[in-house]
Structures are given as structure tokens and as C-alpha cells.
Inverse folding.
């Protein structure tokens, strides 16, 4: 067999083997790496290169070495699943860097972090002032988790005591000019509904659409192949809010126009109820 063909076949075997072993080791090998997993990844890659390029007759021993490394990795992961002590010893413990708004300099030295590196890690979390941080911890993966002080946390409907409807995964109903039947059926819609929505947005054909998504409120977002064409923005939520306000105003008008005290009280109560409903749903309708 020609040498170039043998190298080609070895490389193909090494690539397939490396891919299968990486799949077996799981997603952690390509995301949050511990020290041991980092070493394992480098070593397995080096062994795969050895298998593909070694010109000696015993190149297959590299596959044996790969198998040993993978077996050891499985054994380590099993111990980590069964024992917290082993997890702490292998992965290491998390280290508190900031506590109660105070930087712990001794822990920074322990992790060999400078103040510049700490600020860099905080900026990666969109935090630019140490004074805004209540608590920060370096995880075993090297990432930093940050808890802001209460006054610096993002304002949410929960702070106002408002319960909002849960958001569901948007469904892509058109991709590359093709209707996706399964996502469309998942949201309980059909091609007729989709065609009507596209017409309302001023889109002539499905083939003009690069991507279309339906959100949890049933609204359709469309991106066209031709970026020069502007798509009409639907105003369903704004129209709904305007209609509710009109109902409230009509009820107040009826309350003022009637002479019957009992009827006046009924209209007034309905108007207050409608006002309360509007306050509750306004955050959903003005997005």
C-alpha cells in the first residue's frame, strides 16, 4: 500500500475514533472543563495525531493508549458522580472572591488573580463597578458567578407584584422559503393561517421569506431574503390595549349619563374593574 494512502486511512480512523470517544465522554469535554478534563482533551488529541502520522509498524498501540485514557476518564467521572469528596479533590472547590461587597484579597492570591483580571471577569458578566456586587464566586470551571446588590438588580414585573404569562419557545414556521409543517402543527396552526398572516404583513409569497417565527403570543416575525423590503409591523397588542381603554371610557360615560343611582353604581364598579384589568395586562401589551 502506498505510504500516502496508508496515512490517509490512518487519519480517517483517528478522526472517526476521536469523534466517537468525544461523544462518549459527553458535552462537558467541550464546555466546562476541569483540570483533569483539560489534560485528557489535550492528550487524546495528541494520541490521535500520533495514530495518523506515526510511520512505525506499531502505530496501532496509539489506539490502545486512547482506550486507556477514555477508560480512566469514565472511571474519574463515575467517582465524581458517587463522591463529593472526589469531586472537590479532582475539580476543586469554588472560591469566594467578593463577599458582602468586599473583595477578599487572600482568595484572589489563592487563585492567582490580579485586580485587573477580576475586573475583566466582572465585565464579562456586564458588571463594570465592583461597588454594585454583593457576592462573586469563581467556580471550579474558572467562570465567575456574580450576585448584584438588591438596588442594582434588573427591575422585573415580580417587583411590582405582577404575574405575567410564561414565555414558550418560538416556533420557526418558515426556513429558507420552505414551510415547516411540524412546528406549524405544534402551535395548532395551518398553512391557511400562515398565508393570511403573511398577506397581512405585506409578504407576497412564502419563497420570499428567509425565516419566520411565531412567539408564545401567536405573533409572527418575518425576515425576508431581500433586506430592502420593509415588513409591516403588526399592531395587535396596541389595538387590544386601545380597545380596552375605550371600554373603560365608555363605562365612565354611561356612569355619568344615567340618573339611576343603582345603574350609576354598577357602571362605576365595572369601570374600576376594567381599569384594574388594564393595569394588570399593560406590561404584556406594550412590549
Amino acid at each position: 500500500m502506498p505510504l500516502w494512502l496508508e496515512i490517509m486511512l490512518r487519519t480517517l480512523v483517528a478522526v472517526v475514533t476521536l469523534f466517537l470517544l468525544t461523544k462518549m465522554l459527553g458535552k462537558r469535554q467541550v464546555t466546562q472543563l476541569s483540570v483533569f478534563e483539560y489534560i485528557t482533551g489535550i492528550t487524546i488529541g495528541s494520541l490521535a495525531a500520533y495514530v495518523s502520522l506515526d510511520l512505525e509498524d506499531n502505530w496501532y498501540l496509539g489506539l490502545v493508549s486512547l482506550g486507556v485514557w477514555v477508560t480512566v476518564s469514565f472511571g474519574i467521572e463515575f467517582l465524581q458522580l458517587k463522591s463529593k469528596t472526589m469531586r472537590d479533590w479532582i475539580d476543586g472547590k469554588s472560591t469566594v472572591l467578593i463577599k458582602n461587597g468586599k473583595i477578599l484579597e487572600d482568595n484572589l492570591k489563592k487563585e492567582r488573580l490580579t485586580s485587573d483580571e477580576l475586573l475583566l471577569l466582572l465585565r464579562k458578566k456586564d458588571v463594570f463597578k465592583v461597588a454594585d456586587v454583593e457576592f462573586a464566586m469563581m467556580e471550579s470551571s474558572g467562570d465567575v458567578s456574580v450576585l448584584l446588590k438588591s438596588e442594582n438588580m434588573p427591575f422585573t414585573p415580580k417587583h411590582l407584584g405582577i404575574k405575567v404569562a410564561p414565555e414558550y419557545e418560538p416556533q420557526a414556521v418558515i426556513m429558507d422559503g420552505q414551510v415547516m409543517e411540524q412546528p406549524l402543527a405544534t402551535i395548532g396552526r395551518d398553512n391557511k393561517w400562515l398565508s393570511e398572516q403573511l398577506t397581512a404583513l405585506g409578504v407576497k409569497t412564502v419563497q420570499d421569506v428567509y425565516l419566520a417565527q411565531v412567539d408564545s403570543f401567536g405573533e409572527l416575525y418575518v425576515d425576508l431574503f431581500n433586506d430592502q423590503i420593509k415588513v409591516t409591523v403588526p399592531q395587535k397588542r396596541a389595538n387590544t390595549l386601545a380597545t380596552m381603554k375605550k371600554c373603560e371610557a365608555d363605562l365612565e360615560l354611561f356612569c355619568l349619563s344615567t340618573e339611576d343611582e343603582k345603574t350609576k353604581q354598577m357602571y362605576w364598579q365595572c369601570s374600576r374593574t376594567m381599569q384594574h384589568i388594564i393595569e394588570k395586562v399593560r406590561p404584556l401589551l406594550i412590549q
In short: Residues 27-31 have pLDDT under 50 and may be disordered. DSSP finds ten helices and eight strands in the chain.
